[in-house]
Amino acid sequence: MRKALFFCLLLSYAGWSQSIDISLCTYNSLRYSPTNIDARHPHFRTIMNEVKPDVLVLQELSGASAAQMFLDSVLNIDSAVYSLASFIDGPDLDNALFYKHAKMVALPTQSYPTTLRDIFHFRLLPNHSSDTLHVFGVHLKASTGSTNESRRASEVAVLRTVTDAMPDSSLFLVCGDFNIYKSTEAAYQNLLIDNPGSDGNFVDQINITGTWNNAAYAQYHTQSPRTTQFNGGAHGGMDDRFDLILMSNALSGPNQISYLQGSMEVIGNDGQHYNKSIMDVPASAQYSVDLRTALHLASDHLPVVATFSYKPEFVGLAEPKLKKQVEIQYSQDGVAVHNPKGLPINVDVLSLDGKIISQQQSTGSVVLHGESGAFLVVVSQKDEILLSQKIIR
């Protein structure tokens, strides 16, 4: 039976020749919470139906109940297409990651404290790929002035401590509301600087210099689509580039998963509304009235999207995706994670939609007694994935 199943899988994988795309969207939701909805759900639905992201990183969520509400009332209102990565309720407002569970699995979320808001670390395992995509969600300190610039720089220092310690050629990106005003700001420079001995720096695919509040950079601005104040949002018109997607050197080049050149887009910004509302004249030929109205009413930021592409790999039922320091074995007692070197390992068992079934830590082999059906076993050591494997029993 196992040989027949393996043969069927082999035939299906052999037919794959086209690349698989992952669209990622970052969006500041303007203090989204169960007490601050203001009839915005229809507008968020219009936006998400237009963008249709495979991965959505949302800022300014007020706790786990807000994340669950956005999942149920916006993303999955018609069908259960999205899952919510494990949520961490940090100080102040939070980031959450939503993903299409038919295309990937999310590992447990991590977070790193700063002097203000946590930096969130999401890890995704795309289907038919041996790579882990690391997504960092941030919301840096707002406002102008040297004190605020210094606080943003200190937040970025926390992030760089993490990425500088990651193995060379790691696939990672950071997205969110950076509140950065110019390319010379310390926080931005600290993101880009290539430190000797590490591969933890980020690449900005939109290479613009100087102060970003500039008519020449109008197509890149993400705040504010409004010129009237309501629901507590900013209302200065389209003149700031706060929302970014930056990526590692490995994601920027021709690797297993890589950025699709030219795919970065600020949804709703046609470049013709510097210091104006997106509802002002001239009427956009690029975006519909319905979409612009929804963007105008939903938030004081515009979403930013980028696409990443990869060729599918064949990963067999019993073939580890990464280093063969541990391996899956089968016995009458169930599935076992064999750990011959006695490594300190974490063993996470996940459902195929990303929900945690069990978690264990061990310096020996681990037997998974109760799991049946289809599930994912992920073995890690610190932040390094040693093995990730789909099991069918």
Q: N-to-C terminal Cα separation, in Å?
A: 11 Å
Q: pLDDT below 50 for ≥5 consecutive residues: which ranges?
A: 1-16, 315-322
Question: What is the helix fraction of residues, given as a range?
Answer: 10-25%
Q: Which whole number gives the mean pLDDT?
A: 89
Q: Compute the gyration radius: what is it?
A: 22 Å
Shape: globular
Which CATH class of the largest domain applies here?
Alpha Beta
CATH superfamily of the largest domain: Endonuclease/exonuclease/phosphatase
Helix count equals 7
Going by CATH, the architecture of the largest domain would be 4-Layer Sandwich
- The total strand number stands at 20
What structural class do you assign from the helix and strand content?
alpha+beta
- Largest beta-sheet characterization: 7 strands, mixed
Q: N-to-C SSE series? A: HEHEHEEEEEHEHEEHEEHEEEEEEEE
Number of domains: 2
Task: Offer a quick outline of the entry.
The chain has 393 residues and is α+β, with helices and mostly antiparallel strands. It has 2 domains: 2-11 and 314-392, Immunoglobulin-like (Sandwich); 19-310, Endonuclease/exonuclease/phosphatase (Deoxyribonuclease I, Chain A, 4-Layer Sandwich), CATH 3.60.10.10.
List the keywords.
single chain; 393 residues; alpha+beta; Immunoglobulin-like; Deoxyribonuclease I, Chain A; 6-stranded mixed β-sheet; 7 helices; disordered N terminus
Blueprint (SSEs and pairs):
Elements: H1 2-14, E1 20-32, H2 41-51, E2 55-61, H3 64-75, E3 82-84, E4 94-100, E5 104-112, E6 119-126, E7 133-139, H4 146-164, E8 171-177, H5 186-192, E9 202-203, E10 243-248, H6 249-252, E11 257-259, E12 265-266, H7 289-298, E13 304-310, E14 327-331, E15 334-338, E16 345-350, E17 356-362, E18 366-368, E19 374-381, E20 384-392
Parallel strand pairs: 1-2, 7-8
Antiparallel strand pairs: 1-13, 2-4, 3-4, 5-6, 6-7, 8-10, 9-10, 11-13, 12-13, 14-15, 15-18, 16-17, 16-19, 19-20
Helix pairs in contact: 2-3, 2-7, 4-5
